[in-house]
Amino acid sequence: MLLSMEHLRKEYPNGKVAVDDFNLEVDRGEFIAFIGTSGSGKTTTMRMINRMLNQTSGTIKINDKDISKMDPVKLRRSIGYVIQNIGLMPHMTIQENIEIVPKLLGWSKEKRAKQAHKMIELAQLPDEMLQRYPGELSGGQQQRIGVVRALAADQEIILMDEPFGALDPITRESLQDLVKHLQEDLGKTFIFVTHDMDEALHLATKVVIMSQGKQVQVDTPENILRHPANEFVTNLIGEERLIRAQPNILSVSQIMLKNPVAITPDKTLDDAIDVMHDRRVDTLLVTDANGVLQGYIDLDDINRTTDPHTPISELTNEKVFYVKADSLIGDTVDRILKQGVKNVPVVDKQKRLVGIVTRTALVDIVYDALRGAPEADETPASPINADIHAAATHEGGDTEK
Amino acid sequence: MIHFLATYGTQLISKTGQHLYISAAALALGVIVAVPLGILLTRMKHGANFVITLAGVLQTIPAMALLAMMIPIFGIGSTPAIVALFIYSLLPILRNTYLGMQGVSPTVRDAAKGMGMTWWQMMLRAEIPLAAPVIMAGIRLSATYVIAWATLASYIGAGGLGDFIFNGLNLYRSDLILGGSIPVILLALIVDYLLGKLETAVTPRQLR
Q: Which of B117, B129, B206 sits opposite A104 (nearest CB)?
């Protein structure tokens, strides 16, 4: 374990508890995002890792060494540090800025210069920029330098405190790609504080959701989207984001209709027509005695035969398209929609029929994901809008039937 | 003019030397005391206002009175003059050091500490270089004051270009008055110019 934090607690002299019983294990190469509202203790927790703050109780270990027994200055030189307002030294050139920690560590001039050239390349910036001053660079370029400066002395762990908060969305995205690349290709370990949920979900291998100094949920982005621990997490993620994420986290079994209409092959055509009439459907799924899907029969096939005593087995169309109950909607929706069928049978691992997915249910999910919110959530702004809205909904309903 | 220089030339040079010596000694003492004190004040939660107000009060004492007050303590000569002028030089340097250090962005301080600089390294590599232009402006202002007021030091027997001016006043000779005041003005202008150059030199290229 590269970094482990146990029962961490931070209490200020005025009695305010900033962090309470924080536990986390971080492996090499992980990307941990701390997220929460302001005052949730995320930055406080991060700052205890390089002893910018000291914990009231609890232990932090890096490579099994208790950091409270280490020299804080040496510790900080071994951990990369990137802050929101960039923190480049305005009176030093870019090269001098990159060389700060190597110089503190007493690297030779040649080795430092070599590293500076390597780092500016890593930041995907031109080499000439080394001689410029931070004020001559754009905010995005400055933060690129800020990020690579944190790696200049081969630090293994890099702490980042809302590093991209002040950047515009496009620049932010390109910097997110840069750190993702550093984590994935160089195997660096990142501890990243953010209040941007998209950023956390996009970058992190593990998200730590915090509120009022406590961990609310610690899990992979997928699991957090799939199973938000409580209402706080749901609110933090946001209704819209959860809906957008639905195709990727909902499984087919969650949207299928249970108890589909089915018939066994030993029944006759007469029985089938009765069932169809009763349930007002034009196709019937055929399953054997154990419920295993065999195929389907269609009203068209039935019309062509005259003998009402024909056994179902002779009429069964065995070319049936089905989906597995545990597959994700996102993975299957295209295939289902391309088949152009109204309903798709859902089977379990033993190929037993467990339900059907209607095309309508699927289309609803896809629309919600595209639109970002269920239609019912939209509040009409004026009576006129409300009328149009109602009409549109009505029309939509018609075409779907 | 030529006649004046022929008669008082050597005296002029030695008086200018005395004047410079008194001013430089007072200013040097001022820098040695006020700069560290100003830095220290930024590290203290309380007391900064008190100390700066105190320096401000000292500044309001009339120059002649302050010089006269030094006689019972230090007698006559250059020592009381240097001490009195040193007290005058404190306020601008102290206030500018304090403001300059306060003006260093907390982000820079946080980044410097977070990268593993020791207290001294933070001071020498980040905070003082960044505060240097403001500190230098304070020193420059003090230097001009000190050179001007050093003229009065002649009154307590410290010598300097003030000797010409006071002699001229006593003897009602304008050549002596001008012969003393013009070099003082030139001295002040030259020192101000040189310190201005120094101020630019210590200002990081990006902040100019």
A: B117
* Residues of chain B neighbouring A78 (CB-CB closer than 8 A): 116
pLDDT tens for B139-198 read 999 999 899 888 888 888 888 888 888 888 899 888 888 888 898 999 999 999 999 998
Task: Read off φ and ψ for residue A216, nearest 5 degrees.
Answer: -95, -40
Name beta bridge partners: B148.
none
CATH code at A1-244: 3.40.50.300
8 Å CB contact between B5 and B12? yes
C-alpha torsion sign, points B18, B20, B25, B26: positive
pTM (two decimals): 0.70
User: How far is B82 from B30, CA to CA, in rounded Å?
Assistant: 10
Q: Can you list the domains of chain B with their CATH numbers?
A: 1-207 (1.10.3720.10)
Q: How close, in Å, is residue A140 to chain B by CA atoms?
A: 17
CATH number 3.10.580.10 is the correct assignment for the domain at A250-362: yes
Domain ranges of chain A: 1-244, 250-362
Whether the predicted pLDDT of B120 surpasses 60: yes
Q: What percentage of chain A exceeds 90 in pLDDT? A: 25
Burial A99-132 (b: 16+ CB within 10 A, else e): bbbbbbeebeeeebbebbeebbebbebeeebbeb
Tokens of A399: 């075409």
ipTM score: 0.76
The Cα A259–Cα A239 span in angstroms is 30
Contact B114 A85 (CB under 8 A): no
**Coil, helix or strand at residue B46:** coil
